[in-house]
Design goal:
- Helix content is about 35%, strand content about 20%.
- The protein is an alpha/beta fold.
- The strands form 4 sheets. An 8-stranded mixed sheet has the order 10-11-9-12-13-8-15-14, sandwiched between helices. It has a 7-stranded parallel sheet with strand order 3-4-2-5-6-1-7. Strands 16, 17, 18, 19 and 20 form a 5-stranded antiparallel sheet that branches.
């Protein structure tokens, strides 16, 4: 097997976060045989690992060496999606799944975990001697079938990709994966216009439905019992509340509803249809050809609402979905994020997604873009971020910037709470957010020819320039400093003592400022004196400046000095 650090990388179709993740995978493979990548739903995991496969194939071709790669998934929809992406890259591949014709001579194989180890395929799979194994939706890979598969190829490099390295029983992934690569949080992708922003409406924590959820039976799996959920929630009164909340907050939008079971889904679709909404129910027992017809009609706009049971949690791509309705309680963080993630993909013309939480998942898990401690979940730590979210822990869930308001929608004392945003189609009495701010434009700010700052005043990263023969190149290394206003806001004012206190203890930031100031021939005293810095850089007089703006002024001073010389 070739040295992972020597692979030729073609990143022409990837975004910066995918390029960074791929580099981390190759780096991790130089130290570990088996690694896992966490990346949120809708941020391009399939494109990323397909590009990675393309790099591996091309590198082995250049070295005139043969290679065998296996991609594993647990559902037909995922296999089809992977195959389509491989075709876009021009990568020939075969299938090891069900009744499909097999082309085992091809260097890349796409396999269903259920088919790989059957009596029919076991011998052929073992003969392949795979060098690389990539597992899609790897949070499922602690199942015995995956463990057996990994055991057949102990020398293969392995990669598991998932949005949620989390198990309902809090089982550690360390038995299969030695290292976890964590991508930026969902909030980062939203702020960088890579995922859709959202409004969130939920039932109240002390509501009747929430009490019913809290008192529901738990099955041996660790999640709620489907039988008990059906008996409790599949009734006309509660189903009517689903439609009422849709009518008030998402009327006319295109969306997906997550139901408990087939009967529940059928009843919901029937209710919505009776009010003139083009709704259809779909589940795993829907014949494949019928399912494809329904999905096609949904994507084409002939159907506006799909009510499903465990179909559109993974691998479904329809970016113009702009509302998600949660009608099925769950104790699974993975399922929650997979469900809402179907609505966070971006598409031209889409402003926001509305999430209607009629079963109180927010009350247990927080908002979808809460900062998750994936490293803790990966090793199997329990209870690192939930239960109920009282006022003292709102900041940890990224909610401090949002107003809380109750609508006048209170049929039978069942009020819906606007947790984030205040979008309503027809309801009155809702406190609207004062301003729908546009996402800040991402800027690239060269800092004294030694650093590159990418971001905006609220969130940015600092990278060191790579230098050759004393001159900065277009390439830069890993991030050396990251600033996020939501985590810790730093703003310098006209009060110098305040500014010194703001910077106290932040050694990385202090060193970057000191180094840049030295190159710009500015005294540190002048940097922490905003008035002085504004005057030297000929900047507008303001009472306060963000750290990003401070760097911008230092950069201007440095550039002016260079021109004078």
């Amino acid at each position: 097997m070739m040295d992972s650090t020597s692979f030729i990388q073609d990143n022409t179709v990837l975004r910066p976060h995918q390029i960074e993740a791929k580099a981390k995978i190759f780096d991790a493979w130089s130290k570990y045989d088996s690694v896992m990548l966490q990346m949120p739903t809708g941020t391009g995991k399939t494109y990323l690992f397909t590009s990675l496969i393309n790099d591996i194939i091309n590198t082995y071709k250049m070295a005139h060496k043969d290679i065998k790669i296996l991609i594993v998934a647990h559902r037909t929809e995922l296999l089809d999606q992977i195959s389509a992406t491989l075709n876009k890259f021009g990568i020939a591949h075969g299938f090891i799944q069900g009744a499909r014709e097999q082309y085992l001579w091809k260097r890349v194989q796409v396999g269903s975990i259920m088919s790989l180890l059957t009596d029919k395929n076991y011998y052929n799979v073992c003969r392949q001697k795979f060098d690389y194994i990539i597992v899609d939706e790897a949070h499922h890979s602690l199942a015995d079938t995956y463990i057996r598969l990994f055991g057949l190829f102990p020398n293969a490099k392995k990669l598991g990709v998932t949005a949620t390295p989390w198990r309902l029983n809090h089982e550690s992934f360390l038995s299969l994966y030695q290292y976890l690569i964590v991508s930026p949080q969902i909030s980062w992708f939203i702020n960088n216009n890579l995922l859709s922003d959202f409004d969130y409406v939920s039932i109240k924590q002390d509501s009747e439905v929430q009490r019913l959820v809290d008192n529901s039976e738990v099955a041996r799996t660790g999640d709620y019992s489907n039988v008990d959920l059906d008996n409790t929630f599949n009734n006309q009164r509660i189903r009517s509340k689903l439609y009422e909340s849709y009518l008030h907050f998402a009327n006319g939008r295109k969306g997906i509803i997550y139901a408990i079971n087939k009967l529940h889904a059928a009843k919901i679709a029937e209710l919505y249809s009776s009010h003139g909404v083009k709704a259809m129910a779909i589940d795993c027992d829907t014949p494949r050809d019928v399912r494809q017809q329904i999905i096609s009609a949904f994507k084409n706009g002939e159907i506006s609402v799909l009510v499903n049971v465990d179909i559109f949690t993974e691998g479904f791509d329809c970016p113009d979905v702009n509302f998600i309705q949660l009608a099925r309680p769950t104790k699974s963080l993975s399922l929650y994020l997979q469900q809402v993630g179907r609505g966070l993909r971006i598409v031209e013309g889409k402003e926001k997604t509305i999430i209607l939480d009629n079963v109180g998942l927010y009350n247990y898990f927080g908002l979808p873009d809460a900062n998750r401690k994936w490293q803790y979940h990966f090793v199997g730590y329990e209870d690192v971020e939930h239960e109920s979210h009282s006022s003292q822990d709102k900041d940890s869930f990224g909610m401090s910037d949002y107003e809380f308001a109750e609508s006048k929608f209170n049929e039978d004392d069942e009020q819906m709470v606007v947790v984030r945003g205040a979008t309503s189609s027809v309801a009155s009495g809702i406190q609207e957010r004062q301003e729908q701010k546009k996402m800040p434009v991402i800027q690239e700010l060269p800092l004294c020819d030694y650093y590159l700052i990418i971001g905006h005043r609220k969130r940015f990263k600092v990278y060191p320039f790579v230098k050759k023969k004393g001159k900065a190149t277009d390439n830069f290394g890993n991030c050396v400093f990251e600033y996020d206003e939501a985590i810790r806001k730093i703003e310098l004012t006209e009060d110098t003592n305040h500014n010194l206190q703001e910077l106290e203890g932040n050694l990385k930031l202090q060193s970057i400022i000191a180094f840049a100031a030295m190159l710009a021939k500015i005294k540190i005293d002048e940097v922490v004196n905003i008035s002085s810095l504004q005057e030297i850089s000929n900047s507008e007089k303001k009472s306060s400046e963000s750290i990003f703006e401070v760097f911008d002024m230092i950069s201007k001073i440095y550039q002016n000095n260079k021109q004078i010389v």
